[in-house]
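Q: Hi! First time doing this. I have a protein sequence and I read that you can turn it into a structure. Is that right? Here it is:
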Amino acid sequence: MKFIAGISSTTALLCLVSWQGAVQNNSVSAFVAPKVPTNTLTHLIPSNNDIANAMRLETALNAEAIKITMPALSSTMKEGRVVSWLKSEGDEIEAGEAIMVVESDKADMDVEAFEDGYLAKIITDEGETAEVGAVVALIATEEADIEAVAAGGDAAPAPAAEEAAPAAEAPAAAAAPDFDFSQLDMPALSSTMKEGKVVSWLKGEGDAVEAGEAIMVVESDKADMDVEAFEDGFIAAIITDEGESTAVGAPVALIAASEADIPALQAYAATLGGAPAAAAPAAAAPAAAKAAPKAAAAPNAAASAGGRVVASPLAKKMAEEMGVDLTTVAGSGPGGRITAGDVTKAASGGAPVKKAAAAPTKPVWQPAEGVVAATPTARVLAKKAKLDLASIEGTGEFGRVTADDVKMATGEMKPKRKVAAPGAPAPVELPEGLVPFTGMQRAVSNNMVATMDCPVFRASREIEMDAFNALYQQVKPKGVTVSALLAKAVAKAIEKHPIVNSSFRPEGTFFNKDINIAMAVAIDGGLITPVLKYANERDVMELGENWKELVGKAKSGTLSPDEYNSGTFTISNMGMFGVSQFDAILPAGQGGILAVAGTQEHIVPCKQSILGLKKISKMTVTLTCDHRQIYGADAALFLKTLNEVMMNPSQLL
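A: Yes, that's right. Below is the predicted 3D structure, encoded as structure tokens:
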């Protein structure tokens, strides 16, 4: 080897080997030029502009490029227009992620990536058109290879159709039926896909399909993908069954525009193979053999799934004249079509009776053992979230796990509310989100928290209410309420047990001279405790009038601080709500609060009764006390006295 001044032998050897490889591989984008003087390079390599430019590229050796080709979105599509790119050059993409929107001759469809990588080069810009099979973009497997792949894609490759070598002609098929139908071919789901396997059919023969509806799942060399219908119609014939593989471009099903054309298309399907037109004859023969059983079912199928009879015009006219019911005639024509001869035989009684067609059943698909049925996007999302697909309940077709199922499992999406059945009442709209506290609600909240530092105990007792209820019925017409009577009774019991009217101080027990009964009242937007002052000294009539005034002020928000802050003992009454028993939270600064529940009837023994039983009314009250200055015996004695007052309420008047 001849050495060149300024270049080491190792560098020179690398230049020659790299240049030679680039020429042989016709891929100069992967060539990395060593840092050498330009005037020296002219002595080392031929004067070729492309090679010289390639030597100036600082890219990784052997950068791998993945081609994104214009997909065939329908059986009649020849070219497609890129409506929009959902990713930009340099963006990272994942398998199953939509990267562009393509407009075909049928509709606009999202096109997904089949491998992870980085979008290195967009060859067909938005608004431009490319032939089916033409490369529209390049994907780099590594971020460091983006520049190398992009440089190699400056010259757009020719469509794959032009590069493919002509193949042997396929065996001739029967003439296509003379009515509107479409042929569903095995799509090319990736740039390297040569054949695809039908994992499952999401629709069965005879089922109606709509454009954009998933009709089958195909396994390519990259992933499982849903294949959608591009036109409305009916699945007339399935050529490639579940579990079978066929070449890209080979017909896998026929879709009829009219339900009446299904039998004729089933007969035509028997003449089609499971290979594309460019496949070898040997490959088409087995597929034709597999399709034959479907054709065998076509005769005698005069009525379609919808009940429409397929018969020739002459046969229909003769049947009307002879009084023959065509639904009972077995057709002998192509695809089970009823002919005039069939009608003549039926009229003479010589035709076989047509068997009733079995009701079409919805196809059922079960995945292979150990395989979780999931959409490709769902698999990508589950992998990213590190979720086991087997732990997610699928809501898609045949129980397949969808992307929404994964998002609901991760909390990214809320479960969808089920739509109410027709005629069922609409679901109740419940409030949602944060509602800030009003000033009153915040004060109540702060007061409740302040009681948490107080050690309390509770004591409950049943109070006999028959005598009290009788007194209430007497004074009710005079405007006296239950609340006023309760306040008076509690105040009378406190007179004998002033300890429950006390409050705690660090220095000792503080006794309140006045008995001011605070009564908890629930109002719109909060809770407040209007106070009946000097309840033990005033008569029930005066207390009743005062209570009505306080409640009116509470509802209008006009209570003065002294009218709701001066209580020395509190009553919380929820008896009117039917509550049988509850505990109340002790207000800060007080020694006791009495929780009053509803009145209930009880059967108790009675020696004076004829049957030895009698019915009485009782209510349960629960006293919550500050245990720092009030003890259990104090609470028990107070409740005993309260029961005596309630049983002998005449002292309240």
